[in-house]
Specification:
376 residues; alpha/beta; 2 domains; 11-stranded mixed beta sheet; 3-stranded mixed beta sheet; 9 helices; 28% helix; 28% strand
Length: 376
């Protein structure tokens, strides 16, 4: 509650010197769009559209196949994934500040990232949890005097002040005229930055037999740079539930080469199978798709499939045996699913779902925020 008390003090202090148009009824929660994850996949990998390089090689140097079986390997047989990271946020539109002819939306967000560790007996415990309270306004729409005052107030109360218009890899793709939508992109950027800090904290605890699954893409910087150090593959994978639908894939060489849309590629992908691993960022990242669930119970071919990313600092083809092991142990993580609690249930990994729930449990309730954040 201290965070809200501090924020309410900031709002009341600021409203004494500028005009305010409060959100109707107080704090208005911003809606979260799951499809934003697909848009992020396009943003992070915007320079690549056609993928024609298979970037894996088995010990016998055989030609990779487009599809490979990856039957499940459970935790009892091989406890491969032990750490699970997810981030989440809850964002609110508070109103509009009017300063002479200038105006800016004001948003408040709670942002968190959590890593859970799974013990040998399967129990989960919290390893790392980081939370931030964020106040977002457009610096370019305020006078220097007012921005400086906001900086001072935020510093005194421990609230993170963020400029909505400051360029970053996510929000810079959104139009400047829609600052409320741009604020949503900025909140996601703050969340991914927090996730990177948590990865950095957990990284020393990982090993060849103790891997971390990160919810979402690893192409976000500074995450990509962090995992590219030392020239060695780090025991970390990114698993995306929503991914871009526009890439094309080429398999084979010369006149026999076949081109696949992502729909065609995944329509023929059977349960507990994976695609070949493709190269992105000139081999710095390899990625592939794994089908977790049968298509017959799902609405269309892309459901039940996750995209897996592995940072590859050496830029050399990754051993097929490693990709198979990652995929087989990943398939086993689908066993328990939050059916009915999330529209993405068909691609949920249960420990990731628990990490997300841990973050959300530490957010203030919507009712409390709505009641407490009043301008006057």
């Amino acid at each position: 509650m201290t965070a809200l008390q501090n924020l309410r003090w900031i709002l009341r202090t600021i409203s004494e010197s500028v005009e305010v148009l409060p959100a109707v009824g107080g704090a208005e929660e911003d809606l979260v769009h799951p499809d934003f994850e697909e848009r992020e996949d396009q943003i992070f990998d915007k320079d690549d559209l056609i993928f024609d390089t298979i970037f894996e090689r088995d010990s016998l140097r055989r030609m990779p196949s487009l599809y490979r079986p990856v039957p499940s390997i459970g935790r009892i047989e091989k406890h491969f994934f032990r750490y699970f990271l997810d981030g989440s946020f809850r964002s609110y539109f508070l109103g509009t500040l009017l300063e002479n002819e200038r105006d800016t939306p004001v948003h408040f967000a709670q942002v968190g990232a959590c890593t859970l560790r799974r013990e040998d007996d399967g129990t989960m415990r919290r390893e790392v949890l980081q939370m931030e309270n964020v106040l977002l306004v457009a610096k370019g729409r305020l006078s220097e005097v007012l921005w400086t005052r906001l900086e001072k107030l935020a510093s005194e109360t421990g609230i993170k002040l963020v400029d909505i218009t400051e360029k970053d890899t996510i929000s810079e793709t959104l139009p400047d005229f829609d600052l409320r939508n741009k604020a949503a992109g900025k909140v996601r950027y703050v969340m991914h930055s927090l996730e990177s800090e948590v990865i950095k904290e957990v990284l020393p605890k990982l090993s060849e037999d103790s891997w971390l699954i990160v919810d979402g893409s690893l192409l976000f910087n500074p995450t990509l740079d962090l995992l590219s150090k030392d020239g060695r593959i780090k025991p970390v994978i990114g698993v995306a539930k929503n991914f871009r639908k526009d890439p094309q894939f080429v398999f084979g060489r010369g006149p026999r080469a076949e081109r696949y849309s992502i729909y065609k590629l995944l329509a023929d992908l059977r349960t507990e199978h994976r695609t070949a691993a493709f190269s992105a960022r000139d081999g710095r990242v390899v990625f592939w798709y794994v089908r977790l669930r049968e298509q017959k119970h799902l609405d269309y071919p892309l459901m039940g499939v996750v995209k897996v990313e592995l940072v590859n600092p050496s830029k050399e083809p990754v051993p097929t045996e490693l990709i198979d092991l990652i995929s087989r142990t990943l398939v086993a993580e689908r066993s328990v699913t939050p059916h009915g609690q999330d529209r993405r249930w068909h691609v949920h990994l249960y420990p990731i779902f628990l990490a997300e729930c841990t973050v959300k449990e530490n957010f203030l309730s919507r009712e409390v925020v709505h009641h407490f954040l009043k301008w006057r």
